[in-house]
TrEMBL record:
Compartment list: Cytoplasm
Pathway, per record: tRNA modification; tRNA-queuosine biosynthesis
Name of the protein described by the UniProt record: S-adenosylmethionine:tRNA ribosyltransferase-isomerase
Assembly and binders: Monomer.
Taxonomy, superkingdom: Bacteria
Enzyme Commission designation: 2.4.99.17
Source organism (scientific name): Odoribacter laneus YIT 12061
C-alpha cells in the first residue's frame, strides 16, 4: 500500500474551525463496509444502529494546555514551546517541541509569562525539533503545575487556522475525559453528549474505557511512499481488567464492539492475543494500521473525516475497505461534510 493512494482533494473551507453548537448534532455518515451503502444522518442517530449489551469503547484521556509562548534570553525572540510529556516530576523536566527550532541551543534560557514568572533552561537536544527543558522553579509541585497550565493554551492542531478561544478549553475535551496526559483530543469522542450517553445507557448499551495519551504523531506527515517503512511515534496506553472483562464478554456473546476513534482501535489491536482476546496492559504502543489489515476486536468504528495522506485516514480505510472509504470521502466532499478535529463523523458498520 502506497502513500499516494491516500490523496484526495480537500477544499480548505471544509476544514471545520468550530464544533457544532451541540456535540451530538454534527452530521453522521454511516458506511456499511460489506455493501458500500452510505446513509446520511445526525450524530445522535448513532444509537439506532446498536442494541442492548453492545459495547462502546471510549478513550478517557484528558488534554492538558500544552502550547506555551515564551521569549529567548538576550534576543527576546518569540519561541513556541509544545509540551509533550513530563520526564521527571521532581526535577521539573519536560520533553518538548520548539519552534523555530534552529534558534534554540543547549544552555539557552526561555522566559514565560508577562512578568517572566516561569523560566526554563534547555538541557538537551533530542531531535531536530525536540528539546528537553528543565523549569527553574523553587516552589512546590502543585504551584509549579498551576503556573505552567495557566500560561498554557489549548493545543488545537495547526490546521484549525484561527486563534484559540476560551470555549476551546471545554470543546476540545470529551465529557468523559479523566486521565490527564494527551496533547491532542481523541476527536471521535467529542461528539458524545451527556444526553446521548444517557439514552444509550437506557437502551442497555455498555460502556468500556481505556486510555491512550494522544501525541503529536497523529499529525506527523508520512514521508515515505512505501507505508511499511513508516514508523509511528509511541504513545502510552492503559487497558484495565474491567475493560477487558466487558469487551471479552461482548465478543463471547457475539455482541457488537464499537471503537470510538482511531486511538481506541490502535489500543485494542495492540492488546489482543492470537485468539482474539483482549488483555490488560499498561505500557506503550507504536502500532501502525493500514490496508490490508485483519481486525480482531472492533466490529464497528466511529471516526471523524481525516486529512489527505494522514495515518488516521489509512486506519479508517483498513477498517472500512480502501475502495469503500475513498468513495465515501469523495461523497463527503461533494456533500460538504466538515473535516478534521471539529468536523463531522463517520460510523462504519
Amino acid at each position: 500500500m502506497k502513500l499516494s493512494k491516500f490523496k484526495y482533494k480537500l477544499p480548505s473551507d471544509l476544514i471545520a474551525l468550530h464544533p457544532t453548537p451541540n456535540r451530538d448534532e454534527c452530521r453522521l455518515m454511516v458506511l456499511d463496509k460489506k455493501t458500500g451503502k452510505i446513509e446520511h444522518k445526525i450524530f445522535r442517530d448513532i444509537i439506532d444502529y446498536f442494541e442492548e449489551k453492545d459495547v462502546f469503547v471510549f478513550n478517557d484521556t484528558k488534554v492538558f494546555p500544552a502550547r506555551l509562548y515564551g521569549n529567548k534570553e538576550k534576543t527576546g525572540a518569540e519561541i513556541e514551546v509544545f509540551l509533550l510529556r513530563e520526564l521527571n516530576k521532581d526535577l521539573r523536566i519536560w520533553d518538548v517541541l520548539v519552534d523555530p527550532a534552529r534558534k534554540i541551543r543547549i544552555g539557552n534560557k526561555l522566559y514565560f509569562g508577562e512578568d517572566d514568572s516561569l523560566v526554563a533552561e534547555v538541557i538537551d537536544n533530542t531531535t531536530s525539533r525536540g528539546r528537553t527543558l528543565r523549569f527553574l522553579f523553587d516552589g512546590d509541585y502543585d504551584e509549579f503545575k498551576k503556573i505552567l497550565y495557566d500560561l498554557g493554551e489549548t493545543p488545537l492542531p495547526k490546521f484549525i487556522n484561527r486563534k484559540v478561544e476560551s470555549e476551546d478549553a471545554q470543546n476540545y475535551q470529551t465529557i468523559f475525559a479523566k486521565n490527564e496526559g494527551a496533547v491532542a483530543a481523541p476527536t471521535a469522542g467529542l461528539h458524545f453528549s451527556r444526553e446521548l450517553m444517557k439514552r444509550m445507557e437506557i437502551r442497555g448499551i455498555n460502556f468500556a474505557f481505556l486510555t491512550l495519551h494522544v501525541g503529536l504523531g497523529n499529525f506527523r506527515e508520512v514521508d515515505v511512499e512505501d507505508l511499511t517503512k513508516h514508523k509511528m511515534d509511541s504513545e502510552q496506553i492503559i487497558v484495565t481488567p474491567e475493560t477487558v472483562k466487558i469487551v471479552n464478554e461482548a465478543k463471547d456473546e457475539k455482541r457488537k464492539v464499537c471503537a470510538v476513534g482511531t486511538t481506541v482501535v490502535r489500543t485494542l489491536e495492540s492488546c489482543v492475543t492470537t485468539k482474539g482476546r483482549l488483555t490488560e496492559f499498561e505500557g506503550w504502543t507504536n502500532k501502525f494500521i493500514f490496508p490490508p489489515y485483519d481486525f480482531s476486536v472492533p466490529d464497528a468504528f466511529v471516526s471523524n473525516f481525516h486529512l489527505p495522506y494522514s495515518t488516521l485516514l489509512m486506519m479508517v480505510a483498513a477498517f472500512g475497505g480502501y475502495e469503500n472509504v475513498m468513495k465515501a470521502y469523495d461523497v463527503a466532499v461533494k456533500e460538504k461534510y466538515k473535516f478534521g478535529t471539529y468536523g463531522d463523523a463517520m460510523l462504519i458498520i
